[in-house]
């Protein structure tokens, strides 16, 4: 397996304050309403408080005017990646998020996007265990790799994560991003599951007793 992308690399994620509470935050956002970070602290305790501080300091986090969180990985605001969970239409910051968050949430999801090179519609159907459908079948995921912590995860990493309709469609992006790669959807999904297993975030573990 190739070297993992930072967003699904457990070693990279482990450096983030409060990372153990990330699944709790994602579940709160996936409910479809802005999140008061006090809810996260109530659910996740010390790890939740640490993550809340990290999120508040993060330049890419999205906020409502009343101070509630509107987006951190999962967002209530439209992006190029529509993410349908439990009948609720949400969005993600990048293509890899769709795969990673499906594993964490433990629910079937549907993702809809468009290839930035060809304009083709892209649709994925997923469960926490598998990619069940990919259209077009040769869709790949662009990922930018970093060996170090970044100042703004969204602009430095997530904004470069797209679904391309084929490896050929991703060729231009790869030429412009020499630190990038464009593996298949199933390859990235397998990496995401492996990362979640290492972090204890597989849905059956994350749900608790």
Structural description of this entry:
The structure is a single chain. By secondary structure, the chain is of the alpha+beta class. It contains 8 helices and 12 strands. Strand 7 and strand 8 form a beta hairpin. The longest helix is centred in the N-terminal third of the chain and has 21 residues. The termini are far apart.
The tally of beta strands, per DSSP, is 12
Low-confidence stretches: 205-209
- Could you spell the SSE succession in H and E letters? HHHEEEEEHEEEEEHEHEHH
Backbone structural class: alpha+beta
C-alpha end-to-end distance: 33 Å
Work out the radius of gyration: 16 Å
The order of strands across the largest sheet is 1-2-3-5-4-6-7-8
- Total count of helical runs of at least 4 residues: 8
Roughly what fraction of the amino acids lie in strands?
15-25%
Helix percent reads: 25-40%
Largest sheet: 8 strands, antiparallel
Shape category = globular
Mean pLDDT: 90
Identify the notable features of this structure and list them briefly:
209 residues, alpha+beta, 8-stranded antiparallel β-sheet, two-stranded antiparallel sheet, 8 helices, globular
């Amino acid at each position: 397996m190739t070297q993992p992308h930072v967003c699904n690399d457990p070693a990279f994620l482990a450096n983030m304050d409060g990372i153990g509470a990330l699944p709790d935050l994602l579940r709160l956002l996936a409910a479809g309403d802005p999140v008061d970070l006090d809810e996260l602290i109530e659910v996740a305790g010390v790890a939740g408080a640490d993550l809340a501080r990290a999120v508040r300091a993060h330049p890419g986090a999205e906020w409502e005017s009343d101070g509630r969180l509107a987006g951190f990985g999962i967002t209530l605001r439209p992006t190029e990646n529509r993410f349908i969970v439990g009948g609720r239409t949400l969005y993600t910051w990048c293509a890899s998020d769709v795969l990673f968050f499906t594993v964490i949430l433990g629910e079937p999801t549907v993702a809809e996007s468009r290839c930035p090179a060809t304009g083709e519609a892209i649709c994925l159907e997923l469960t926490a265990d598998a990619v069940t459908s990919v259209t077009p079948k040769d869709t790949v995921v662009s990922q930018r790799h970093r060996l170090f912590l970044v100042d703004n995860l969204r602009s430095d990493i997530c904004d470069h994560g797209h679904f391309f309709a084929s490896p050929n469609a991703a060729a231009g992006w790869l030429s412009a991003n020499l630190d990038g790669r464009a593996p298949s959807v199933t390859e990235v999904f397998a990496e995401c599951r492996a990362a979640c297993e290492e972090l204890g975030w597989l849905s059956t573990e994350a749900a608790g007793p």
